[in-house]
Each structure stands twice: as structure tokens, then as C-alpha cells.
Design brief:
Blueprint: E1 6-11, E2 16-23, E3 27-31, H1 44-48, E4 53-57, H2 79-92, E5 98-103, H3 105-116, E6 121-127, H4 132-137, H5 141-146, H6 149-152, H7 158-165, H8 167-171, H9 175-178, H10 180-190, H11 193-219, E7 228-233, H12 238-241, H13 245-249, E8 258-262, H14 268-271, H15 273-285
Parallel strand pairs: 3-4, 3-5, 5-6, 6-7, 7-8
Antiparallel strand pairs: 1-2, 2-4
Helix pairs in contact: 2-3, 7-11
Keywords: Hydrolase
Domain AB hydrolase-1: 26-238
Pfam family, one: Abhydrolase_1
């Protein structure tokens, strides 16, 4: 897994991140979603590393990266804090400007990173997401039914108890779908109580400080300054919830937002790695 990539834990000002990086060419930072770790990219990253220097961290709170001490410290679990980690990480590796792609919860960190640090981001790919504020303001019965976990995970204590009672049944996943090493890394994460709390902190911050950050940016007319490309899964529920993802994202961008679907379930890096790598390469290389 990740042939010719380097694996290390990097100490940064606010967090220690477990990171894999390798390849040649312009830098590309890949941010995973919930409940995955950076190993979700194990089939995509080697393909992209032929054209880019690919960096895959475990986000703060996830995997084997450090965890906020208090799972209800919304600032410590915020996308803004995680964005600062990403800037520090890329500078540590020698990159001031870089391409960026984020999936699921990682897409929210990617969005905040591009909003807060526009001069550092060259291009932004957002996978399976709409802005947090847009999801919450458009919330209806269908959203609350399909994405009920957003609100459950934000509660105190009960989510941890439910998940840790039987993490495998709760989250699903299999060796066949994920590959042996990726599955084992995922398994170690979901069975660790501190990691589960760290992952839940991402949702708790989402309904608190992250929403407020989005609201403030919209109120002052702040927009993404880099080219933006959306990729969404045909076999996930975003197309059912939203008629036009590009239309939702366009007001958040100074550039014309592009996008396309991919024949995949939600975990597209594992389901359709070659198609995803091709789409990212096409967008990032323009």
C-alpha cells in the first residue's frame, strides 16, 4: 500500500498529524472523510503521484493524528483549526501553494482552507458535499431522514456509547470493498474510543462554530478565489437531496464552478479509484 510513499508523524504547532506523501510534480493535498483515515486514498494516490507530489494526512481527530482533549471544544474540532493544520503541514513539506481535494467531512476542511487561506490554494476539488450552512438551511424531512447522523453525532456521550458497543456493525465496511491494509487501518480507528470521540467532534463543531463561520463569510460576500470542481457519487444520496449541486456552490465561488458525477457509492476513492483519479488529474492539470 502506497508504494514509494513516506509515512511519518509530523509535529505541528497545534497538532501532530500522521501523513503519507510521495510522488513528483505540483503539490496535491488529499483530505479523507468520516469514518476513514488517509488510507482511503491508497488506490488513488499512487495514480496521481505520477503527476503530483501527493500528501495524505489523517485529519486532526481522525486516525492516528492527535485528538482534541475535549470532544466538545468546538474550536479545537473546527474546520478552521484543521485548515490551519493543513497550512502548517504543507509549509513543513516545503509548499506554500498547492492543489486541494477533500471528500465528505474532509471536503468541509478543504472548503474552509480555501476560504481562509486563498493565496495558498491553486485549485479545489470538492467530493460529495454541499456547504454546511446550505445543508442545514435546506434541511427538510428527506435530509433529516437520510442524514440523521449529523444531529445524533452532535449529542453528548450517547453517540460514543452506541458506536463503541459494536463499531463494525455500526460503520460497516469490508476487506473485499476496502482492501486488507486500508480495512485494518479503518478498523483500528473505529475501535479506538479516543478516535471515535475525535471524529464525532467534527460533527459537533459542524453544527456550532463551522456553521457560524459559513454564515459570517456569506454575510460579507466572501467567496472562493480558486477554480472549483465538484465530483459527486451517482449511487450516493446527494443527487436525491439536491437537484443541482453546481447551482448550490456557484454563489460561493468567484469562478465558474464545474462538476460531474462518478459511477460510485459514497466512498468513491475505494469504489472507483481510476475514474476519480482521472477526473482529479484532468481538473488539476488544466
Amino acid at each position: 500500500m502506497f508504494d514509494n510513499f513516506k509515512l511519518e508523524v509530523i509535529e505541528l504547532p497545534e497538532a501532530n498529524l500522521r501523513v503519507r506523501h510521495g510522488g513528483y510534480g505540483p503539490p496535491l493535498l488529499l483530505l479523507h472523510g468520516h469514518p476513514r483515515t488517509h488510507t482511503t486514498w491508497h488506490l488513488v494516490a499512487p495514480l496521481l503521484s505520477q503527476h503530483f507530489t501527493v500528501v495524505c494526512p489523517d485529519l486532526r481527530g481522525f486516525g492516528q493524528s492527535s485528538k482534541p482533549i475535549d470532544p466538545y471544544d468546538y474550536e479545537a474540532s473546527s474546520k478552521r483549526a484543521k485548515a490551519r493544520d493543513c497550512i502548517a503541514l504543507m509549509r513543513y513539506l516545503g509548499f506554500d501553494r498547492f492543489n486541494l481535494a477533500g471528500h465528505d467531512r474532509g471536503s468541509y476542511t478543504a472548503f474552509r482552507l480555501a476560504m481562509d487561506h486563498p493565496i495558498n490554494i491553486m485549485k479545489l476539488a470538492l467530493l460529495d458535499c454541499v456547504p454546511i450552512i446550505e445543508a442545514l438551511e435546506r434541511c427538510r424531512v428527506q435530509f433529516a431522514t437520510k442524514w440523521w447522523h449529523w444531529f445524533f453525532y452532535a449529542q453528548h456521550n450517547k453517540p460514543e456509547q452506541a458506536i463503541l458497543a459494536d463499531p463494525i456493525s455500526w460503520y460497516g465496511g469490508s476487506i473485499e470493498a476496502m482492501g486488507v491494509e486500508n480495512y485494518m487501518d479503518f478498523l483500528n480507528a473505529i475501535k479506538d474510543s479516543e478516535t471515535v470521540k475525535g471524529m464525532l467532534g467534527d460533527y459537533r463543531a459542524g453544527l456550532q462554530v463551522d456553521y457560524k463561520h459559513d454564515l459570517h463569510d456569506r454575510s460579507i460576500g466572501k467567496k472562493l478565489q480558486c477554480p472549483v470542481h465538484l465530483i459527486w457519487s451517482e449511487r450516493d444520496d446527494l443527487p436525491e437531496l439536491y437537484d443541482n449541486l453546481i447551482q448550490i456552490w456557484q454563489p460561493w465561488s468567484e469562478h465558474i464552478v464545474t462538476g460531474s458525477s462518478i459511477d460510485s457509492g459514497h466512498h468513491m476513492a475505494e469504489d472507483s479509484p481510476m475514474e476519480l483519479a482521472e477526473q482529479l488529474l484532468t481538473f488539476m492539470s488544466k
